[in-house]
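As a warm-up, study this chain.
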Amino acid sequence: MSTGAHRLFDLSGRVAVVTGASRGLGLQIAEALGEFGARVALVSRKSGDLDAAAARLVGSGIEARFFATDLAQPEAGAALVKRISDAFGRIDVLVNNAGATWGAPAEDYPDAGWEKVFDLNVGALFRLTQAVARAHFLPRSKGAIVNIASIEGLMGHHWSRPGSVAYNASKGAVVNLTRALAAEWGPRGIRVNAIAPGYFPSKMASAVIDAHGDDLIEQTPLGKLGSENDLKGAALLFASDAGGHITGQILAVDGGFTII
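Now compare it with the structure written out below.
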């Protein structure tokens, strides 16, 4: 990495944990951090998908290992931190990307759907963040947390699309959890920010994009969905020293979807 401003983005020697990293947005982010020198811990539920993701990164010259974990389990966060600590010796960056959704009209929304979405999107996110902070960030008075929220946490859901009230509410919680942790842990050297992606082709968004993709593109000033590179810059900024004076912020990466 060259001198000057380029050095601010250099993550050499640092360890980044990325959840929901077996594909899609999480893998995109892991790739970006690895390309700038981070050693990457990939976390998701399925070993097979993780193995393929890790092989892709390693094939690009990135040091990556995978850790299959069901973060919805109450003790999973602390156990995962120990496994990653044993493997890498440290954690410098945490990217909370793992999430779930459940589509149903609000009046018919099942308790099981509500609990599943909130437990993973908010509860598991907080438990893992707490475990990483206790073990690594707070003792060293340094760390970067990047939460993946959503534009659905910044706005109401359009009535023409399948209801997603728990997803909207949970991502709204992630937005303010980001601010609350940034305020509390800022004096202790920890930065906490969030990215709110718009519509990106992904397994989670596939049903909505298949049914409403043309409308979504028409409502986006840049006239396109997110691409396989469009989260990389934002994630790298928040994870690196280039974002050293940024905390508590929510950055919409949505092609302008939320400005109109």
